[in-house]
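Long-time lurker, first post. I've been practising inverse folding by hand and with some scripts of my own, and I keep getting stuck on stretches where the structure tokens seem ambiguous. Below is the full token string for one chain I'm working on. Before anyone asks, I'm not after the true native sequence, just a reasonable design that respects the backbone. If someone could post their per-position residues I'd love to compare against what I wrote down in my notebook.
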């Protein structure tokens, strides 16, 4: 027998007596949960170099590699940040194979590359005098970014802070341009301390430290700060704090399991609040004296986000209408609507930011058949100018399949929305199907431009993206329907998708073959589909997915653990539910081909989750494959690894689903 890829750590796996556990979960499942070895550790150091070498991605067939490469060249730069005078735009782009920062000095000018190398680098802000850029840089997908300064005209980076194993997050630049505010878990790994960095003096000062996942969400010219304390991935408390007086006061959300996003208003004592506290959907409110007054109309769709310009003269917000984005503008004082340009046929219109004086804003526009285009709107002149052009080399994207919004029924009568892209024809019929479950789990699949989906459509697959219960965008009840042990009641949405498609999309009595895939929580959904619902899908590709919710919670990064417990359940209190919700608990049912893809440096889902699932599948004699990226984290960021991940996913499904 081969040696295990990770050294097992044998420990007690249940706080309950086996007899009671057996009654709750069934004798076989309980025995597996009690006896299965687990692992310990996080990051690339938790797996041997020999294992990383053994499971490195193999070379793709040349033609398949070329197809994936061509699809990756269909891209648009990031929305970006305008210089204070509005004459330059700084944005992120992956042209070099990794995320780097670029500058363009005027509409549709030739871009200048500002940063380089293999480490992913992003632009965060620019100082009010236009002299310095604030940049974030991460290594190997570890999600332990550093914070840097760079001259706005280009040049070497100066580190404000970049420490191994430590997260350093930018908050804001003071209005006088002297101070950079940031937070870091350099003192305690599961909590954040606030600092202020003096640019001229090149010195830092500690401002604030309290237990919890804190961040700064707004500030005033007088130095007062608006702080958010996250209670879960969505719920948060909001506090006001003054660095000068040290006064700390509650604003909203204390002791509540509700969503709150807040900004200082344009008037003293006024706040703008986005929350679903008073209904099923998120709305935007004006709050004075603790009283909320609705700004946006009552409806069935969430306000997806909002922002004020820096002078707090204009209020922008977007609405998520069933996976399509519409944006609006209001006068921040009178709350009267302001007219934005119309973009007929757009799937998504979003406001990305603007100049500090509020005169110019960036508008991103995306359709089903073209990458996002970025425009700059000048409020003073009313002029709309396209600044950055998307790239579509050698491919006519006008021929891309447009996603149709459909639904499928569940066993308990719910209707699950899904976006479906179909090939023009299938030979032979029926087309095989690939079902892609999104991550999060609070994320949402939406409409718009998707070269990734088109790659599968071009290969002859129907590409389906469901928004199962627990997805964002459909109200609070839908979003919270899978929290904790409640997930047991709705996780069958995964199987019901396959049941419906086999029945409704069969042709002449021939049932289509169906594959399942996803990343992160979508990877977990894939593993659950292939084990607990074995036989529903004919092949699966799980990327950075959890195979055991227990070992995941025990080994994930400390800063994430508390937030994920609120979503999945407590390892002690909800232990039985977590065992029942873990794909590896049903490993004896696994029978169909499975490909597992994982980054070794992943701080969210430990590499051990992939290794233990692969080893268990091997023992079952299942056709299983494992790909480990030694230099990646929670998903592939480098181009060569993206090509390998996408290419092997497509290869795997072509092997096992196409007749």
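-- Answer (accepted) --
I ran through it position by position. Result:
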């Amino acid at each position: 027998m081969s040696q295990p890829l990770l050294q097992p750590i044998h420990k007690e796996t249940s706080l309950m007596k086996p007899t009671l556990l057996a009654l709750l979960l069934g004798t076989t499942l309980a025995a597996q949960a009690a006896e299965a070895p687990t692992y310990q550790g996080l990051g690339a150091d938790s797996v041997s170099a020999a294992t990383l070498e053994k499971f490195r991605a193999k070379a793709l067939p040349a033609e398949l590699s070329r197809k994936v490469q061509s699809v990756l060249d269909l891209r648009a730069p990031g929305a970006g940040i305008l210089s204070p005078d509005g004459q330059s735009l700084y944005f992120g782009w992956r042209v070099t194979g990794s995320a780097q920062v670029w500058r363009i000095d005027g509409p549709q000018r030739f871009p200048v590359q500002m940063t380089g190398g293999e480490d992913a680098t992003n632009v965060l802000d620019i100082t009010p005098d236009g002299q310095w850029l604030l940049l974030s840089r991460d290594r190997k997908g570890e999600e332990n970014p550093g914070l840097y300064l760079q001259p706005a005209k280009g040049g070497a980076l100066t580190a404000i802070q970049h420490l191994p194993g430590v997260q350093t997050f930018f908050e804001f630049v003071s209005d006088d341009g002297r101070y950079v505010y940031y937070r870091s878990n350099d003192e305690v790994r599961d909590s954040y301390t606030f600092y202020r960095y003096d640019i001229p003096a090149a010195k830092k000062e500690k401002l604030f430290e309290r237990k919890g996942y804190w961040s700064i969400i707004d500030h005033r010219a007088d130095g007062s700060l608006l702080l958010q304390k996250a209670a879960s991935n969505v719920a948060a408390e909001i506090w006001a704090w003054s660095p000068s007086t040290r006064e700390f006061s509650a604003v909203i959300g204390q002791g509540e399991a509700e969503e709150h996003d807040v900004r200082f208003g344009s008037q003293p004592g006024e706040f703008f609040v986005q929350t679903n506290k008073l209904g099923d959907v998120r709305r935007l409110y004006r709050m004075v004296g603790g009283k909320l007054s609705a700004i946006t109309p009552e409806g069935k769709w969430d306000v997806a986000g909002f922002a004020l310009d820096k002078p707090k003269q204009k209020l922008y917000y977007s609405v998520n209408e069933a996976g399509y984005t519409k944006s609006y503008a209001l006068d921040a004082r009178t709350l009267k609507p302001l007219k934005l340009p119309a973009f007929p046929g757009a799937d998504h219109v979003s406001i990305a930011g603007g100049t500090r004086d509020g005169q110019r804003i960036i508008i991103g526009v995306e359709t089903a058949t073209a990458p996002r285009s970025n425009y700059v709107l000048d409020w003073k002149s009313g002029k709309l100018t396209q600044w950055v052009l998307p790239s579509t080399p050698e491919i006519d994207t006008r021929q891309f399949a447009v996603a149709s919004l459909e639904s499928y029924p569940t066993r308990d009568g719910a209707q699950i929305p899904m976006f479906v892209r179909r090939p023009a024809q299938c030979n032979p019929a029926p087309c095989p199907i690939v079902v892609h479950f999104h991550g999060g789990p609070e994320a949402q699949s939406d409409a718009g431009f998707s070269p990734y989906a088109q790659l599968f459509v071009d290969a002859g697959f129907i590409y389906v993206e469901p928004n199962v219960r627990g997805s964002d965008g459909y109200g609070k009840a839908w979003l919270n329907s899978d929290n904790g042990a409640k997930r047991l009641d709705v996780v069958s949405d995964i199987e019901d998708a396959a049941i419906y498609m086999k029945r409704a999309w069969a042709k002449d009595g021939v049932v289509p073959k169906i594959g399942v895939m996803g990343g992160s929580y979508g990877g977990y959904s894939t593993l659950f589909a292939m084990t607990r619902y074995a036989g529903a899908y004919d092949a699966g590709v799980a990327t950075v997915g959890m195979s055991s919710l227990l070992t995941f919670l025990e080994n994930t990064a400390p800063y994430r653990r508390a937030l994920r417990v609120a979503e999945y359940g407590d390892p002690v209190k909800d232990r039985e539910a977590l065992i029942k919700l873990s794909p590896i608990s049903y490993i004896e049912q696994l029978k169909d081909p499975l490909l597992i893809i994982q980054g070794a440096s992943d701080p969210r889902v430990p590499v051990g989750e992939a290794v233990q699932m692969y080893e268990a599948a091997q023992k079952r004699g299942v056709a299983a494959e494992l790909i480990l990226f030694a230099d990646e984290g929670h998903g592939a960021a480098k181009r060569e690894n993206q090509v390998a991940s996408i290419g092997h996913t497509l290869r795997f499904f072509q092997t096992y689903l196409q007749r």
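A couple of notes from the structure itself: Confidence is low (pLDDT under 50) at residues 1-27. The first strand starts at residue 81 and ends at 82. Happy to go over any region you disagree with.
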